[in-house]
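re: that chain from earlier
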Amino acid sequence: YPNLKTSRDLQTIGQEDLARSLGQKTGAWIHALCRGEVDEPVKPNLLPKSLNACKSFPASPIEQVHKWLLILAEELADRIEQDRQDFARMPRFLVLHARGAVHFRDHSSQSPMPKSATRDRLYEVGLKLFEKIQGECLPCSRLALGANSFVFDQKDMKKMDTYFVASASEPGNSGALGKRKNIGTSALVEKKKGKAQCKPFFAPAAPSKQPGGCRATESEGEGSRDGIDLNAVDISQQKYILSMIKGAQGPAANSSASKRKSSGGQSNLGQFFATRSSSQD
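^ sequence. v structure.
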């Protein structure tokens, strides 16, 4: 509805027409909203996601745009400073919105926030942003200058880092990075422990000089290992243990494993031990 400018204008559109254009739910909500009949509870937001300074005015040439942009830059600079004092943060981006008075379409442009968010710097950057879209926005009927994507001040970030400082019993760790390194190291140790725990399962009953300690004896046969019935082990678990063994044996074992795979492969532990037994004999 490009010809509608106010809530009074919107009240002339019936709910059925709004539902056809916007959907049943949105149409009903807009129909009630323009009449002030929405009874949704107000949800307080103590930490605003953006700061904005806006102004609507009659269709104006570029000279009036410069005048209002300077006023908006001063207002936004004050809000940024107040927000910094209240929440110890600074915005990362400056956004300019402008509406043309011909087609009533909004256009926007943004850039990184200048390090010094003063009135003059915001005005200077705002002018450059408007130059990018002025072809679609002149004559202009609305301007808005906004700040968003906040980050906390460096001083505040240093205070947060103290929560992650390593204890005296953990020398060499510092801050959140140290915590992450610690977590990664412990996870790696757990993996190594998991592999180490598999070795006693396949170790020979008596000391053996055979590499890997994984040779099955003739009396045990293909389906057993040190008195353990390998056929009773779930096939998915056997494949997992096989992958751990081949990974621990290095590239040479993986190369030979790929050759065996091309000639039939090994799908369980019994076949693995039988193959190793025949190759070592």
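The first strand starts at residue 50 and ends at 60.
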